Amino acid sequence: MHNMPKKYYALFTLPTIIAFAIAFLIPFLFGIYLSFTNFRTVTDTTWVGFSNYIRAFTGDNNFVHALWFTVRFAIVSLILINLVAFTLALLLTGGVKGTNFFRTIFFMPNLIGGIVLGYIWQLIINGILLNFGVDLTYSATYGFWGLVVLMNWQQAGYMMVIYIAAIQSIPTEMVEAAKIDGANGWQIIRNITIPMVMPAITICTFLTLTNSFKLFDQNLALTAGAPARESAMLALDIYTTFYGRVGYEGVGQAKAVVFSIIVAIIVILQMRLTRTREVER
Amino acid sequence: MTKKLFPIISILLIIAFALAACAKPTAAPTEVTQPEVPPATEAPVVATEAPAVTGELYYLNFKPEIAETYAKIGEAWKAETGNTLKVVTAASGTYEQTLKSEIAKADAPVLFQINGPVGYASWKDYCADLSDTELYSHLLDKSMAVTSGDGVYGIPYVVEGYGIIYNNAIMNKYFALPGAKAASMDEINNFAKLKEVVEDMTARKAELGIEGVFSSTSLKPGEDWRWQTHLANLPIFYEFRDNNINTGDPAATMEVTFQYADNYKNIFDLYLNNSVTDPKLLGSKSVDDSMAEFALGKSAMVQNGNWAWNQIKGVEGNTVLAEDIKFLPIYMGMPGEEKQSISIGTENFYAINSQASPEKQKLAADFIMWLFSSDTGKNFVTNELGFIAPFDTFAEDEKPTDPLSLEVIRYMSNTDLYNVAWNFTVFPSQTFKDNFGAALLQYAQGTTTWDEVKALFIEQWKTEKELAAQ
């Protein structure tokens, strides 16, 4: 084969670069610019420096509250979703009858949009809470655990598929050898399965963590922040700041920039951590 | 091993990207410059014959319940003048969001609504001076318009009224019971009597065949405007009246003391304690739920305005007869309230986009003039939109005939009573209303005290007014 002529580089990379610029780069840079301005509509702005960032953290503590709520949610759902998904994957690779059927069933919720899921679970949870004479808006704790349940239901099946793929790629000889050496079920999981599926764990933790941080539709549909914005997560808080308050468009934009930075930092840190673990094995 | 695993993971990741892109497009940090707006329903009126188009007018409509009527109006307008009306209707509760993104576009709305002085303050860069428009010259009461200096920036186009809507059939059933606390609605002209009757009705609700006297106090976020705006207007109206505060002077309304908070609590408690729904469950009730309860005869009373007629009428299986639907003023224990009327005013003002081309602005002015003065237009306004229009182009017999509008007209013509003006147009901001509504819900659920609600009202009013003044 000949080397590809240089002149074709542009042909193949330009469409991607243009798409990337239009859909990502330009809006992102424009967004950063907007966070330093005061505006009603994005075409009509005045420069105000850092005051939007100051207002995001002072004035009211909605943003800080939402940040804290999101962090707690991300930790809880990260652990729970991966535990559930991994357990399901183990069960469904263990030679149970009807494996394919169950895999499909567990994967299905992921195909339903977040808004729809939010309303479905709102009905279910309110139906249960009704027996105790309250509803979802009664306390942010209900909203929190409602969201955790919802996210588990939606995401566990998806993560399960990734884990199944990883578990199935473990050479059977390794497991057999361990069995001959007298390892019990737990020891096999602990010392063979988990180290072998580390790349899948990296991917799944990464996906669940970022998904939890970016959660919006489910939050909007399930509680819309009730009671009194106490169950609003970061994305919803940014949205209500930007659209809900006249004169706060720039502040919403500033919150969004802070939000991107937080997510970026978390992702980098987490990728580093799990990557080193992978090498160690 | 890794060789096997990698293609699988790569494929899964690709699927993940595709799915993530479909499933949750809103929250990605990269997209925050253009957060997704809940979909606006677009109903362009398409030209049927060859385009002899003289112009297209983009109107951003604020009332979803009349979106279809505007499509018909567009067709009629096109038939008479050859101009095209493009109507985009914002989904319920998202008007301000939709306006914010639509007006930034090259093809921006030319005709839109503002909700009074506060709305004008947010959109003043886009509001054209309407003092020379023909429609303004026909406005009956010029003091109703939104003005600033010599300019007129918003023309009210509908007069509305709200109060306690009651089902006369159920009330008559109650009055016929032995030992009823009143013999007719005429006796109920103050809070003490209302409370006595309502509480007795609650005690005998089985006999009356109702589930509660009042429909659910809808306190779901976004559905709580009947309490955080309309009901809250009453104590504020009295506070302004008794302290001789001029609502047209922004400096005079910077702070309130909420001195009639206890009166608000009177009527609000009455709503909560004699309701179809347990107070702890009100956080998931919407206005629609509330109106459906009334229409199905599960409740005898509901606080709302004359716009609710379409909702009552539209409920399937409704049992309420049109002639039984009446208005009662909202009494809350104020001295002299026997002379209080229902609350009549407006928060719907036409504004024309000053940044549109002069031809487009002219077209918008012509359209609203046509709608409120031509026979075709007036027919739509009276019979289909059901507006009580405040213009002298309407004759006596050109008034809407639905039961609630008739009640509004009846109260308007009763000069013995004093009107409760719509002072909520000077409420500081939507955030203020939302926070107050959220506090009301917590009060209903019993997680906060009335004193805290009152303190929040005063504190939020001050904070939000100061923010708005910046």
Structure description:
- The complex is a heterodimer of chains A (281) and B (470).
- Chain A is built from twelve helices and two strands, in the order αββααααααααααα.
- By secondary structure, chain A is mainly α.
- Chain A has two domains: 7-50, no CATH class; 52-280, MetI-like fold (Orthogonal Bundle).
- A two-stranded antiparallel sheet of chain A has the order 1-2.
- With 470 residues, chain B is α+β, with helices and mostly antiparallel strands.
- Chain B has two domains: 41-159 and 346-394, 3-Layer(aba) Sandwich (D-Maltodextrin-Binding Protein, domain 2), CATH 3.40.190; 161-344 and 419-469, 3-Layer(aba) Sandwich (D-Maltodextrin-Binding Protein, domain 2).
- Chain B contains 17 helices and twelve strands.
- Chain B has helices at 2-23, 67-81, 95-102, 117-123, 134-137, 168-175, 191-203, 205-208, 225-242, 261-273, 287-295, 309-314, 358-373, 375-385, 403-413, 430-445, 450-469; strands at residues 41-44, 56-61, 84-89, 111-114, 146-148, 151-156, 160-167, 212-214, 299-305, 325-328, 343-345, 349-352.
- In chain B, strands 7, 8, 9, 10 and 11 form a five-stranded mixed β-sheet that branches. In chain B, strands 4-12-6-5 form a four-stranded antiparallel β-sheet. A three-stranded mixed β-sheet of chain B has the order 1-3-2.
- In chain B, α9 (225-242) packs antiparallel against α10 and α9 crosses α16 (430-445).
- The longest helix of chain B has 22 residues, at 2-23.
- Mean pLDDT of chain B is 83; it is low at 12-53.
- Classes of the chains: A mainly alpha (281), B alpha+beta (470).
- Chains A and B meet through α1, α5, α6, α9 and α11 of A and α1, α3, α4 and α16 of B.
